[in-house]
Amino acid sequence: MTDFKKLMDDKTYLQIPKVDDIVKGKVVSITKSAVHIDIEGYRTGVVRGPELRDESSQYADLKVGDEVEATVVDLENENGEVELSFRFAGHKRAWDKLAEFVKTGEVIQVKITEANKGGLMLAINHIVGFLPVSQLSPDNYPRVAGGEKQKILEKLRSLIGKTLDVKVLDLNEAENKLIVSEKAVWEDRQREVIAKYKVGDTVEAEITALTDFGAFVKFDNLEGLIHISELAWQRIDHPSEIVKVGDKVLAQIVGINGSKIFLSLKQLAHDPWKNIAERYKIGQVVKGKILKSNPFGFFVELDPEISGLLHVSELSHLPAKEAGEVGEPGDEMEFRIISIEPEQHRLGLGLKDAGDEPQKEKAEVKKEEAKEVAPAEEKPAEEKSAEAPKVK
Questions:
Q1: Are 98 and 108 in contact (CB under 8 A)?
Q2: Which pLDDT score is estimated for 259?
Q3: Which terminal residue of the chain has fewer beta carbons within 10 Å of its beta carbon, N or C?
Q4: Is the Cβ–Cβ distance between 214 and 227 less than 8 Å?
Q5: How many CB atoms lie within 10 A of CB 315?
Q6: Regarding beta strands 307-311 and 346-351, do their DSSP bridges make them parallel or antiparallel, or are they unpaired?
């Protein structure tokens, strides 16, 4: 009775597992198709068939005597044994391990298995994950002129089979969602390098890509952006007017925001607006070429370095139908300088004379105006007196 009481007091022997519980035990035998496990204080269990696959790869090389964990699938099978699964237990362990990676920020290596237009597919301990395009490092980001989707997909497919260092970015076991980031690893590794630089530093960089909004450059294994407005003092429509991929340039760092570095070419170039007073005066009549028109006026090039704006308000004295006839891109004509703001790099223009007719007149318009003279126009008083009958 004393031994029985001790047995009853020992809670280990009273804990009968339930289906889906994870139990611990010791391997007692191993065959090609099954592993038998002694579940302490209960009975023998067996792992067989597809349930032998361990998603965490923890039990790839089992030996008799090893302590293991398995998930209860059935409390009693046809042989009176507890039916167990390494697969379910491994699945749980794999998700738990991923949750640890989220907390610690540990860097893990993954092999890319597939690519689609949105990013790359991979697997971590048999759990399928996704690496979005936006989370690729600059080295692997698919920059394609015009954003052509097929070319982007081709670049992503070139990464299939490669091993990348990533961090777990988002995790949801219930939704079977695993999102990773290569960019986060790259940012962490660049912090020490970025710390060596400050705003105002001059660096030698290589142009690596061009977009409508600027040029990407690389230096010291860092990536930066030269915005289109920082490429030159004059107005340009596309970075390709100033640089091309492969060019080596000197650039000044004008901003650092985390891992983002912003640079400028024009800050190292002569600012033509500093001595503009020596070249142009308010009221001066100048020749210029219309570069571009838009709803608020015309951009006009006075010389290769200085452009001005003919604001639409300067056309208010013209009939609405004639405003569009003032000029078009490529036209050269005369303007009058009405304002100069060197600090803001702005120069305002008006037509040569505010009261003048538009300088780009159509010959047909003039002819039509000539035809509009009234046929019954009253004659001058002198002619009337000449025609009046003389009174003797």
A1: no
A2: 79
A3: C
A4: yes
A5: 20
A6: parallel
Asked whether residue 391 carries a pLDDT value surpassing 60, the answer given is no
Copy the structure tokens of residue 298. 């015309």
User: What domain range is 37 assigned to?
Assistant: 28-88
Task: Return the number of other C-beta atoms located less than 10 Å from residue 53's C-beta.
Answer: 15
Q: What is the DSSP string of 330-388?
A: T-EEEEEEEEEETTTTEEEEEESSTTSPPSS--HHHHHHHHHTS-TTPPPPHHHHHHHS
Among 120, 222, 227, residue whose Cα is nearest residue 178 = 120
Look at residue 304 and tell me if it is in a domain. yes
Residue 239 CB coordination number (10 Å) = 24
Q: Are residues 241 and 313 in the same domain?
A: no
The tokens describing 232, both together, are: 């030159």
Burial bucket for residue 126 (CB in 10 Å: 0-12, 13-18, 19+): middle
Per-range mean pLDDT, top range of 8-12, 367-371, 377-381: 8-12
Residue pair 197/256 in contact (Cβ under 8 Å)? The answer is yes
Let me know: does 318 contact 326? Beta carbons within 8 Å.
yes
Calculate mean pLDDT across residues 31-37. Answer: 89
User: How many domains does one find in the chain?
Assistant: 4
| 54 has pLDDT over 70 | no
Question: Does residue 355 register a pLDDT over 60?
Answer: no
Q: Which of the listed residues 38, 59, 88 is the one where a domain comes to its end?
A: 88
| Residue 6 pLDDT | 57
Whole-angstrom Cα Rg for the chain = 40
The reported pLDDT for the residue numbered 70 is 86
Residues 6+ apart with CB under 8 A from 21: 71, 72
CATH of the domain at 210: 2.40.50.140
Name the nearest CA neighbour of 217 among 196, 229, 203.
203
Of 14-28, 306-320, 373-387, the poorest mean pLDDT is in: 373-387
Q: What is the DSSP letter of 126?
A: T
Cα–Cα distance for residue pair 247/254, rounded to 1 Å? 20
The per-residue pLDDT for 277 is: 87
Where would I find the beta strands (DSSP E) of 80-162? 82-85, 108-116, 119-124, 127-132
Average pLDDT, whole number, for the chain?
A: 82
Name, of 185-189, 215-219, 233-237, 305-309, the range with top average pLDDT.
Answer: 215-219
